Amino acid sequence: MSKLTHFNKEKRAIMVDVSDKTATLREASATGTVFVNAETFKLIASGETADLNSNKGDVLAVAQIAGIMAAKRTPDIIPMCHPIAITGVDISFKPDEKRSAIDITATVRCMGITGVEMEALTAVSAAALTIYDMCKAVQKDIKIGEIRLISKTGGTVK
């Protein structure tokens, strides 16, 4: 069994030392899904504001910005994450009417000494939470799930 890397010999939490790693192009993609009812789905897919009284705006446009912002702020949210000079973040949405679901994918890139999987996961999570926030006025039982890393590249120098 492998051991956890974020603890030292005294079992205290540490930020892993990556100073001996070589900078490489790194990319990670994560995905997750927001499940809504048919009425809420139609509001999201049409680009209408979910909360007609608050004038919050287009749900997916706001969620996209939230996901990008979250990727950039990951070390402020996740204690042991290294600050990373991100070179690109792309958030995409795939509305699925049959499932009344919004599938979210985030891809993050950097040229660095540690990976960007936490940034991709954080971007998806923030985008999903933003959809939830903007739609909670019209639906109380929204579900967020299936958040996971789907790919990770970089880090090996040959």
Q: Average the pLDDT over all residues and give the rounded result.
A: 91
Radius of gyration: 18 Å
- Residue runs with pLDDT of under 50 for 5 or more positions: none
Oligomerization state: single chain
CATH superfamily: Molybdopterin cofactor biosynthesis C (MoaC) domain
Q: Indicate the percent of residues in helices.
A: 25-40%
CATH class: Alpha Beta
SSE order, as H and E? EHHHEEHE
Which strand-content bin applies to the residues? 25-35%
Structural class designation: alpha+beta
Under CATH, the topology can be stated as: Alpha-Beta Plaits
Number of domains: 1
Total number of β-strand segments? 4
The tally of helices reads 4
Which overall shape is indicated by the principal axes computed on the Cα atoms?
Answer: elongated
Which architecture per CATH?
Answer: 2-Layer Sandwich
* Major sheet strand order: 2-3-1-4
* Termini Cα gap: 27 Å
Major β-sheet profile:
4 strands, antiparallel
Can you describe this structure?
This protein has 158 residues and is an alpha+beta fold. The chain has one domain (34-151): Alpha-Beta Plaits, CATH 3.30.70.640. Helix content is 29%, strand content 29%. It contains four helices and four strands. It has helices spanning 38-46, 59-72, 74-77, 117-135; strands at residues 24-35, 86-96, 101-112, 143-153. A four-stranded antiparallel β-sheet has the order 2-3-1-4, covered by helices on one side. The longest helix is centred in the C-terminal third of the chain and has 19 residues, at 117-135. The two termini are 27 Å apart. The mean pLDDT is 91.
